[in-house]
Amino acid sequence: MKEVVKPARKLAGEIAVPGDKSISHRSVMLAGLADSPVTICNFLASADCLSTVACMQALGVKVDRPGEDELAILGNGLYGLSEPEEVLDAGNSGTTIRLLTGILAGQPFFSVLSGDGSLRRRPMARVITPLSKMGCRIYGREGSRYAPLAIVPADGIHGIDYTMPVASAQVKSALLFAGMFADGPTRITEPYISRDHSERMLQTFGAKVTRSGLIVKIAPVQELSAPRTIDVPGDISSAAFWLVAATIIPGSRLRLTNVGINPTRTGIIDILRRMGADIEITNQRQAGEEPVADLVVSAAELSGTTVEGEIIPRLIDEIPVLAVAALFAKGRTVISGAEELRVKETDRLKAITLELAKMGARIEETVDGLIIDGPQRLEAAVCQSHDDHRMAMALAIAGLAAGGVEIEEAACVAISYPRFFAHIAALQEAAGGSR
């Protein structure tokens, strides 16, 4: 599917961004391990999250969908999953395959996890290696480096102390989930604190999870006590596209409602504000263990900055659209320590450099980041999404702020934001159309 994005006069109005992808995944998995009904509201019904739903159903969890963004889940308890008859298909979802590996490693049955071609090229040893230290038996392609993953019942899972070489919420979550089935506590030391949705969700379900500095610990779990309802906040990674768009398109002003502002995810707000963005956080409140708020963003002039170190895990998914913002900022922006982007749905550092260059951008790609001198002028172009949802949306924002863009393979936005292009059209109409 091709999508043509016309340049915007300005953006104005209000958007309720879709539910948080990370929280949607985790809520379905843990609800499936409880034994009382759970209703999930504002669930993100995207391709990735629906892959998690399909896998949990294949494991015997009852899932009904009374509304477009609502799920009713009834699990069979922590030890009540059933052996799947087929290979579990995680689609394009790294979260699905890595977190489910931690859960399935503690089950008394054989299972196989796989996904699409892109997912089968993404590294899995980072999860398999520490899980193997716990006694889990997991085997994959090319020396257990890639999916498909065969998971064999373990003789027993042991709690371990593990120091993570790279901050990764997916790896940490897989170990925490496996730690529920261990014979003793599991302690994980992170180099930097990565997103902590798993810890918060586990606490919501009654698991004993504690943190001391960079160390997070989980005690063995006998059962999960499910809340009746989980309200999923709006996804700040989706909100990030509008934060950048409204900042760099003159005359714009947007209100983004019910956005999750978990401090392990707000790096994009911190960096944009450091660059000079006008972002107001209002109506702060709680949705379960997660903080939420409304965000009001108005057009502003930006200046370049340095993005590195401990903030990188807090905005790793937002770097493609942050690169777009940097093109409109005065001075140099340097992003480093983001080598994780090379093993996402595509090599995002290479892809964003290549595709924005088609629009006239000059970006220096480094081993672990980008160097961008601005401001620059972008022209209309035909660009490839590389079948990567965040690439497609970042290119769309660049097109809105410049001369427009035609994006090939744009249907991939359904992975995290199915109504993204519909929201662009609605915002442009509210602001008087395109240029």
From TrEMBL:
One Pfam assignment: EPSP_synthase
Annotated InterPro entries: Enolpyruvate_Tfrase_dom (IPR001986), Enolpyruvate_Tfrase_sf (IPR036968), EPSP_synthase (IPR006264), EPSP_synthase_CS (IPR023193), RNA3'P_cycl/enolpyr_Trfase_a/b (IPR013792)
Entry annotated with the keyword Transferase: yes
Predominant place of localization: cytoplasm
Limits of the Enolpyruvate transferase domain: 6-422
Catalytic reaction list: 3-phosphoshikimate + phosphoenolpyruvate = 5-O-(1-carboxyvinyl)-3-phosphoshikimate + phosphate
Enzyme Commission number, as recorded: 2.5.1.19
Source taxon at top rank: Bacteria
Top EC group: transferase
Subcellular localization: Cytoplasm
Active site per the UniProt annotation: D317
HAMAP family per record: EPSP_synth
Its biological purpose: Catalyzes the transfer of the enolpyruvyl moiety of phosphoenolpyruvate (PEP) to the 5-hydroxyl of shikimate-3-phosphate (S3P) to produce enolpyruvyl shikimate-3-phosphate and inorganic phosphate.
Homology family: Belongs to the EPSP synthase family.
Protein's recorded name: 3-phosphoshikimate 1-carboxyvinyltransferase
UniProt source species: Anaeroselena agilis
Gene name, Swiss-Prot/TrEMBL: aroA
